Amino acid sequence: MTVALNERKKQILKAVVVNYIKTAEPVGSRTVARAYRMGLSSATIRNEMADLEEMGYLAQPHTSAGRVPSQLGYRYYVDYLMEKDDLSSAEEQALTSSLSTEKMREIEQIIVNSARVLSAATNQTSLIMGPQFKKSAFRQMRILPLDETRGLVVLITDTGFIKNKVIDMKQHLSQAELQQVVSYLNQKLYGLTIDQVTTSLINELKRDLFRRLEILEQAFILLEESLKEERQIRVFLGGTTNILNQPEFKDVDKIRRMLNLFEQEPLLFKILEDTSSEDDFVIKIGAENECEDIKECTLITGTYKIHDKTLGTVGVLGPTRMDYSRVISIMHRLVDHLNHSLSS
Amino acid sequence: MTVALNERKKQILKAVVVNYIKTAEPVGSRTVARAYRMGLSSATIRNEMADLEEMGYLAQPHTSAGRVPSQLGYRYYVDYLMEKDDLSSAEEQALTSSLSTEKMREIEQIIVNSARVLSAATNQTSLIMGPQFKKSAFRQMRILPLDETRGLVVLITDTGFIKNKVIDMKQHLSQAELQQVVSYLNQKLYGLTIDQVTTSLINELKRDLFRRLEILEQAFILLEESLKEERQIRVFLGGTTNILNQPEFKDVDKIRRMLNLFEQEPLLFKILEDTSSEDDFVIKIGAENECEDIKECTLITGTYKIHDKTLGTVGVLGPTRMDYSRVISIMHRLVDHLNHSLSS
DNA sequence: TGTTAGCACTCGTCCTTTTAGAGTGCTAAG
DNA sequence: CTTAGCACTCTAAAAGGACGAGTGCTAACA
Questions:
Q1: Starting at the edge strand that comes first in sequence, how are the strands of the sheet with B297-306 ordered?
Q2: Which positions of chain B have pLDDT values less than 70?
Q3: What pTM value is reported for the model?
Q4: Do B160 and A152 touch (CB under 8 A)?
Q5: Closest nucleotide relative to residue B46's CA, C1' based
Q6: Residue A63 Cβ under 7 A from any strand C atom
Q7: Fewer CB under 10 Å: which end of chain B, C or N?
Q8: Interchain CB contact of B277 with A (< 8 Å)
Q9: What residue has its CA nearest to the C1' of D20?
Q10: Closest Cα to residue A186, out of B155, B180, B144, B149?
Q11: How far apart are CA B67 and CA B321, in angstroms?
């Protein structure tokens, strides 16, 4: 598939991409000749650039403008040409300190903060998918009676989720009765993921229990409810207004579509889920993205884990003209940090 | 203060405001003459409009454009001229059905949904301040041991808040010991607002308890923590992108400032808190707002209650050229609905 | 054969000028 | 007090022109 490029073409392509990422202006042959590839005249570069355009790596906004990387050009750059970006130690330090986890016990706080830091550091929009409730394993469940007819169900998972839900109980249940059901359930459900707690499993348990306790219909209904309807897939955003800084988003209409997307959590979830791969970072450039609204953007995603179990996805979304190596470096840091600080 | 306006001037002012709200274009004397005030020529209207301008109710974007209501003009309109807007029964129905509370037990869900509905119906941005944790009254507290060293504090207030926090306990506490502290605390704190649970009160309780139980240092620290640091003033937004539809926000820079504001919850909180009045709706037009960033906007706020206790504030934010009567009608509906559905 | 200087040409951006139209203010008459 | 009429103002949009960056091509050169 990939047409072979000779060394010189590679260098030129790289020069164009790097320059365009920096300036957001089409890059002319002169610029390339002067700044990057000493010893060749602009005319030669021009010829090479014409070739690169024909091959599909570069494009021209109009006849008499410089060249701009095409999607394919970015792809090639990312796959073969990009150099690793080492953050300056000042930046590094700033990053570490703003990520510092003191006073942040709750997983949600950590994630919200990470999203903010990530967007600030990259100057792009960041998306972080929180741990998926459904994939978490059941740890234990409690029911606290609140008053005569209401109770509070508390559900705790291995990933630190704590869900609670107030439930109405038509009948009064004594503390002892509740206790019995609850401990039975805890025993049966321990270690299952929420996904695995299906309606049929619940029914089974219900039958099982009914022989011993007949009062508990209500209690069951609510357990079922509280498990079933929780789709609880939260996506945390940071720096949604950063796209306004990008010159490619000076059109109000584009902005609108983008911000609209940001308001629709299920869509964001889908976008992140589609992309994510267990292990490495995934870079989706332009039309490689499924979602119509981000076909002019690049999405870079990675996953974070707790004790080697994948918890969620971290993403950075910006125009295809994005500082790939820098963003990736920052994301690496962040994911490392997340992995580390969640494992405690 | 208010300069008297004769009937004709009132009619003309009203016509200009109504027309400008609808079209967002400066209104000329011709338009007013034709559409609203039959039997008068445009020249006459012109004279009157010149008067109104001199009095400060109208303004001219430039010499040869129509007139636009000034802030004072809007004020006068809102205070004396505005007619009540009756929603069409179709709209009414749509509103009621999308507000329907089935399957929404949690207060947060109800509010999020309300914000969405409100923004959709008004085509503006909506802000809803959730119940303030600090003003809620302590109902009860529980500690669930999770494992050897960790426990889950659950705190319940009269307004339906359920807070939980995982805490580390350096020492192992038996269920019985915990139980003792907890029930003592419940007894002492019942009915106080969270605001009233000060550090000094806690210290007092602590001394009191220490005589009987010496182990509980840890448990106390965490109670203190979980109460203190919770500033928990959530403002829920709806339709933040609606401002993009307003012609007054076609400037990217304005958009940026606005969206930035929306990301800063504490500021939003302040804005809502400043405005709110216990009983009636408050309309702040343009520079009447304290906050620099919304001096070109109008903010309309009202409060919702549960059992006659004010819980939070509902607001609609948009350009000063906003359909006041319509927005107010919708907000009335919404607040009624909130009041009603929260009291159960 | 690959490289380069030179040059005509293209096309978008920026600036100025022109034009059209909406709306005004003023005057004089009804 | 009202109104017709008219000159005037000012903006927004269209039209024109100069500029300059960058290209593609050709012909000469190593």
A1: B235-238, B125-129, B309-319, B297-306, B282-285
A2: 1-3, 37, 102-105, 134, 149, 167-175, 178, 195, 199, 209-232, 276, 344
A3: 0.84
A4: no
A5: C24
A6: yes
A7: N
A8: no
A9: A64
A10: B144
A11: 13
